[in-house]
């Protein structure tokens, strides 16, 4: 098994972080108020991990986290059941999702909102947002046959920018 390591750097000194669970395939290292979070595998399942006092530790209740994002000092992320979760008091909690938005991606903070792109029955693929309590509809891209996609949601000087497209490519 290939092994990866996590390091901290202070000045010109790199120090290896203790990794007793032999976590591998680190990804999406994200800072939330001075606490490092990342996704990684210690078995066949990716989980959410953190570094505390120089040691890698698992965050319980997370499965295949991705799109780790710091939003107003809280860690938000997607997981393998396609829900938007937030980490509250060390516990992964699903954000209220009355439209049942799935296949979410591209978590992007702009101002006081966290934007995402996802699918909801009856609405199709669309742009959604949350201020931390519930996911709500923002906009739907122009019709491109019966298929839409979006990528690269980006905060550009306080304005959300993104590209959309359909089966024939971007619009």
Distance between the termini: 43 Å
Number of helices: 0
How many beta-strand segments?
A: 17
Largest sheet: 4 strands, antiparallel
Strand order of the largest sheet: 3-4-5-6
The proportion of strand residues reads over 45%
Q: Unreliable segments (pLDDT under 50, ≥5 consecutive)?
A: none
Q: Which bin fits the share of residues in helices?
A: under 10%
Q: Which whole number gives the mean pLDDT?
A: 81
Shape: globular
Radius of gyration, Cα only, in angstroms?
18 Å
- Indicate the structural class: mainly beta
> What is the H/E string?
EEEEEEEEEEEEEEEEE
Question: Can you describe this structure?
Answer:
This protein is mainly beta and 171 residues long. The protein is 0% helix and 60% strand. It is built from no helices and 17 strands. The chain has strands at 7-10, 13-16, 24-32, 35-41, 46-52, 55-59, 66-71, 74-78, 84-88, 91-94, 102-110, 113-120, 124-130, 135-139, 149-156, 159-166, 169-170. The strands form five sheets. It has a four-stranded antiparallel β-sheet, with no helix packed on it. Strands 7-8-9-10 form a four-stranded antiparallel β-sheet, with no helix packed on it. A hairpin with a 4-residue loop joins strand 13 (124-130) and strand 14. It is globular, with a radius of gyration of 18 Å. 22% of the residues are buried. The model has no long low-confidence stretch (mean pLDDT 81).
């Amino acid at each position: 098994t290939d092994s990866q390591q996590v390091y901290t750097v202070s000045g010109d000194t790199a120090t290896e972080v203790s990794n007793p669970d032999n976590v591998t395939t680190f990804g999406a290292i994200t800072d939330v108020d001075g606490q490092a979070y990342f996704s990684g595998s210690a078995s066949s399942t990716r989980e959410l991990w953190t570094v505390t006092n120089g040691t890698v530790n698992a965050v319980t209740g997370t499965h295949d986290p991705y799109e780790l994002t710091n939003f107003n000092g809280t860690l938000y992320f997607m997981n393998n059941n396609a829900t938007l979760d937030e980490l509250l008091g060390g516990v992964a909690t699903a954000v209220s999702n009355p439209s049942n938005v799935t296949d979410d991606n591209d978590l992007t903070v702009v101002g006081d909102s966290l934007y995402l792109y996802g699918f909801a029955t009856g609405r199709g693929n669309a742009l959604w947002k949350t201020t931390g309590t519930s996911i709500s509809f923002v906009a739907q891209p122009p019709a491109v046959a019966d298929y839409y996609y979006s990528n690269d949601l980006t905060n550009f000087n306080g304005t959300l920018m993104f590209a959309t497209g359909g089966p024939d490519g971007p619009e």
